[in-house]
Amino acid sequence: APMRSDVLNFVHDSLRKNSRQPYAVSSKAGHQTSAESWGTGRAVARIPRVRGGGTHRSGQGAFGNMCRGGHMYAPTKVWRRWHRRVNVQQRRFAMCSAIAATGVPALVMARGHRVDKIPELPLVVSGNVEKIKKTKEAVKVLKKLRAWSDIQKVYQSKRNRAGRGKMRNRRHIMKRGPIIVYKKDDGITRAFRNIPGITLLNVKYLNILKLAPGGHMGRFTIWTEGAFRTLDKLYGTWKTGSTMKKGFHLPSSKMTNTDLNRLLT
């Protein structure tokens, strides 16, 4: 499928918004004082001012967004349109682009993955990997595939988060490692889940937020044989449509031959 980063970015951005929680300031914020304008003739601004005396607060401007302690401009409301609906065909097109990019070494390396020693991309392993139940066996598999250097990169990338998240149980951040796509979970999730940076996905429930984090296509993906064969049924081939998604055919490029001289002669 054509790798359309613009479609992928749009879909990723929209789907990511669906996990947002509504927030808003209090409807009373900035108005919890009795203030009234002094009117004209006093050579001061007509902004409402706090009543009373005997304190620095009396006589200070109130309510306005230009005042200390006043309300904000356009206070946030919980009824904002937080979520986005994305067309099914667009979602499928973006997913096809993300899957196609996992087989392009240049795009995978551009995301920062250490794949220079990987035998080939896309990387497809035997279905026996799905039956692994121990983490030490999973580590052996990754070392045999020469994918362990990408995990070491994740270990070395652990650092403190910038901003307030440090105080909200999100103190550390790490880079993303490989994603493992399987067909049947016979223990594979238990084996790989404790290795930092690794994401596990069932081929029938592929997630574009995991396959292309941040909207950047080309995440290093390890497919099991069964999962890789299922892709033909899920999204079809160039000759046949999908048997699992009604009416879906792989998107094709409008220009099949980019050699203009050959077309014109």
Quick synopsis:
With 265 residues, this protein is an alpha/beta fold. Helices cover 29% and strands 9% of the residues.
List the topology elements.
Layout: H1 5-16, E1 35-36, E2 49-50, H2 88-101, H3 105-110, E3 123-125, H4 135-144, H5 148-156, E4 159-160, E5 172-173, E6 179-182, H6 188-192, E7 199-202, H7 208-211, E8 221-224, H8 225-235, H9 260-264
Parallel strand pairs: 3-8, 6-7, 6-8
Antiparallel strand pairs: 1-2, 4-5
Key descriptive features of the protein:
single chain; about 260 residues; alpha/beta; Ribosomal Protein L4, Chain: A; 4-stranded parallel sheet; two-stranded antiparallel ribbon; elongated
Would you give an account of this structure?
Pfam families: Ribosomal_L4 (PF00573). One of its GO terms (cellular component) is ribonucleoprotein complex. One of its GO terms (biological process) is translation. The protein has 265 residues and is α/β, with parallel strands linked by helices. The protein has a domain at 102-235: 3-Layer(aba) Sandwich (Ribosomal Protein L4, Chain: A), CATH 3.40.1370. The protein has 9 helices and 8 strands. The chain has helices at 5-16, 88-101, 105-110, 135-144, 148-156, 188-192, 208-211, 225-235, 260-264, and strands at residues 35-36, 49-50, 123-125, 159-160, 172-173, 179-182, 199-202, 221-224. It has a 4-stranded parallel beta sheet. Strands 1-2 form a two-stranded antiparallel ribbon. Strands 4-5 form a two-stranded antiparallel ribbon. Strand 6 (179-182), helix 6 (188-192) and strand 7 form a beta-alpha-beta unit. The longest helix is centred in the middle third of the chain and has 14 residues, at 88-101. The chain is elongated and about 85 Å long. The chain starts with a helix and ends with a helix. The model has no long low-confidence stretch (mean pLDDT 94).
